[in-house]
Structure to design on (118 residues):
């Protein structure tokens, strides 16, 4: 699976909401999502939260177009475990994952999106 992250001082961070109050993602550690009932950006649709992941790079390319500031945006391959479910109201091919890990090796291979025209 693939995920969009922010690269802050060489470390992965979530785009919006953190895990237990922290946006920094620990490398090489399985992280369980804070699952709760949340609303999407429009404030209308409720869904069960989880880690936003994409099954492949073409799916991710479409999602990236909605971000104006790509300066610290990166794509990183992630491992998922536990349950995954579709974010059914999303116009993108987004899955939500219960458990995720960003390996150090995958983080070293992250793809910066600034200047890539994606």
């Amino acid at each position: 699976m693939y995920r969009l992250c922010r690269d802050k001082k060489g470390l992965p961070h979530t785009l919006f909401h953190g895990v237990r109050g922290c946006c920094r993602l620990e490398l090489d550690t399985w992280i369980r999502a804070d699952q709760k009932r949340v609303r999407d950006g429009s404030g209308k649709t409720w869904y069960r939260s989880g880690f936003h992941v994409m099954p492949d790079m073409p799916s991710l390319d479409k999602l990236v177009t909605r971000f104006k500031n790509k300066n610290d945006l990166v794509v990183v391959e992630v491992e998922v475990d536990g349950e995954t479910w579709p974010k059914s109201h999303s116009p993108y091919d987004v899955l939500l994952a219960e458990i995720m890990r960003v390996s150090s090796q995958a983080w070293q291979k992250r793809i910066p999106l600034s200047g890539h025209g994606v």
